[in-house]
Amino acid sequence: MTTTADRPPAKQAARRTPTGAAQRLEPLAERLLGGQLPVRVRMWDGSEAGPEDAPTVHVRSRRALRRLLWEPGELGLAEAYITGDIDLAEDLGDGLRAMRRAVSERGLAPPAPSLADRLRAAGTALRLGAVGPRPPVPAARAGLRGALHSKARDRAAISHHYDLSNAFYALLLDETMAYSCGYWTSDAAGYGPADAQRDKLELICRKLGLRPGARLLDIGCGWGSLTLHAAQHHGVRVTAVTLAAEQAAYVRGQVATRGLEELVEVLNIDYRDIAGRPETRGAYDAVSTIEMGEHVGDAEYPAFTRILHDSLRPQGRVLVQQMSRGADAPGGGAFIESYIAPDMHMRPVGETVGLLEGSGLEVRDVEALREHYVLTVDAWRRTLEERWSDFVDLVGEETARVWRLYLVGGALAFEERRMGVDQILCVRPDRTGRAAMEPTRRDWYEAQR
Q1: What CA–CA distance (Å, rounded) separates 91 from 93?
Q2: Residues 346, 324: Cα–Cα separation, whole Å
Q3: 40-42 and 312-325 beta bridge pairing
Q4: H or E stretch at 204
Q5: How do the pLDDT tens digits run along the chain, 449 residues long?
Q6: Residue 40 and residue 48: Cα distance in Å, rounded?
Q7: Which of 65, 93, 136, 273 is buried deepest, with most CB atoms within 10 A?
């Protein structure tokens, strides 16, 4: 007869170890994932399951499971992270990267959950005490109303993101206040985000061929980085357009501080209102729209490109800097569209080129900046982490966690080629087909060497 003392130590330990929440959840999770757990899970009761060498996900409360029951998938996971119900032991970027790599290497392909799967999930949640009413939605989630891309809804969408406060963006961004991909021309010590943004602004001005006295229409001007640079360093007369009230106020303040009132006009209007201003038709030597086209919407984009075309004089140029998605990749995703950029739409860059050409513009140059955005977003993320307590004091813990997840996930999307960003330079040829473009690109880059 074998006694307890005679059993091997491992078997004794196994017999003594109670079945915790992790062990109860593991079979269900693996069925829903289509394979073994790609991460190690540590539950609120201290129990753990999954590979020991994988990133550790802390499920801190039963409420995390309740969120996933009510909102399965990306959005439920994101909201559990935002509220602190789920966390990672590792750096969030390293953890997400390792998790995605594990999913890819193991070839996990989650099947569509059957009714039996749903009932099994509900039963497991009930036994774990995780069944209950829908948890409150985090306050940072957008709640838009009205018809998609109506002027009122677009104003609300822009306000949700860009009117968070000028103080928030001043804390996050460098002194240029450029909230778009930089152009990193050096890896020398001392070269930083502000240098990359100034190099980007100068590159845009050179591609547009800006000269003193030229007229520039800057659609979606943000906090005025390009508007101010073009006016101050190139003597350009700029009409700056933004739908965000906080941005318009900031740019007007900077115009006054820098003494640029004779060169810069700031309009707090919808881009569609440009078409109703007869003085703008064919009036501009150049038009810029820097990472604003993602907010236009797919159905509205042809009308948007027509405004770009019609605002230009013959031989005038337009530069579109815009994010794109991979051919087989989703757009912003549920988290981005719910918390960061509601109603955002991205498409593969080739489709945008086709839409621009469809308006009568001639596409002359496309420059991919995908790797530059990895560097840009990573710089913003470092600032967020270094000044974490300041951000929490300013906007609260949940909003700060929204932005951490956004920046980490964004950098990873550009790194993995699920998203890209491109500068697309177009010209409006005159009636004879002349574009008046330089024969080479030499002048665009020589000054930045």
Answers
A1: 6
A2: 5
A3: unpaired
A4: helix 193-207
A5: 444 444 444 444 433 445 799 999 898 888 877 888 888 999 999 999 998 988 899 999 999 999 988 888 889 999 999 999 999 877 888 888 877 877 777 776 667 778 787 788 778 888 888 888 999 999 999 888 888 889 889 888 888 888 789 999 999 999 999 999 999 999 999 999 999 999 999 999 999 999 999 999 999 999 999 999 999 999 999 999 999 999 999 999 999 999 999 999 999 999 999 987 878 888 999 999 999 999 999 999 999 999 999 999 999 999 999 999 988 776 667 888 889 888 888 999 999 999 999 999 999 999 999 999 999 999 999 999 999 999 999 999 999 999 999 999 999 999 999 999 999 999 999 999 999 998 899 889 886 65
A6: 7
A7: 65
**Rounded-to-integer distance, Cα 280 and Cα 260, Å:** 21
> Looking at residue 299, what DSSP letter applies?
T
Q: Is 320 helix (H, G, I), strand (E, B) or coil?
A: strand
Q: Is the dihedral of CA 441, 442, 443, 448 positive or negative?
A: positive
CB 91 within 8 A of CB 124: no
Answer for the pair 221, 241: CB distance below 8 angstroms, yes or no: yes
What token pair was written down for 292?
């604003």
Is residue 256 within 8 Å of 291, Cβ to Cβ?
no
